[in-house]
Specification:
25% of the residues lie in helices and 33% in strands. The protein is an alpha/beta fold and 212 residues long. Helix 2 crosses helix 3.
Amino acid sequence: MNHPRPSHSRRLVRGAAGLLVALAGCNVIPPAQEDATRYFILSDTPPAGQAPAAGGLRIGLRRVTLEGYLDHRTIVVRTGANEVRFEDFRRWAEPLDAGVARVLRSSLLASPDVAQVYGEPFPVDQERDCDISVKIVRCEGAENSAGKYVASLEATIEITAPGAAQRVVSRKLFTAPSESWDGSDFGRLASLLSKDVAALAREALAGVPPRS
């Protein structure tokens, strides 16, 4: 007795099913890997709800600018005078300029000599005693000449009198004292750089002329 031979399409279906079973047995799909990226922020100490200082300074804080190589989320480690390393799995959780501006503002407001700090765009109905501009030249980890790692922050500070003339009152380069870092604890690096930005705010405030 002759049995009917399976059709060509049925043979293809059976072959495909067998191939799927074989692939499942081989476990060709790798397990999902945990994301190794870690994110860090600069820390500030917000003012403890005190009332604005009576007769205190009214400061305009202009947008913080960055050197081009710092203008991204990846944390930078300087390994030589002309060489840097980008830590792909160690990143800032917010734009670095925004983080620096946040710490600058809270540090300025923590001073008893400051009544208010305005950010750009400045309110048209509020007078200001001065404007502060900051450009971050370095904000990174760095390996020094002795082979030790430190936190490194440099910035230019410009104080201007507000108004149409925009007269420059003072301009200076601020370099924070280097503090040691082990080269791998990026939480400590973020903490040290936060401390440096707070010191930068105090240096900027020291350049502001007294309110007349």
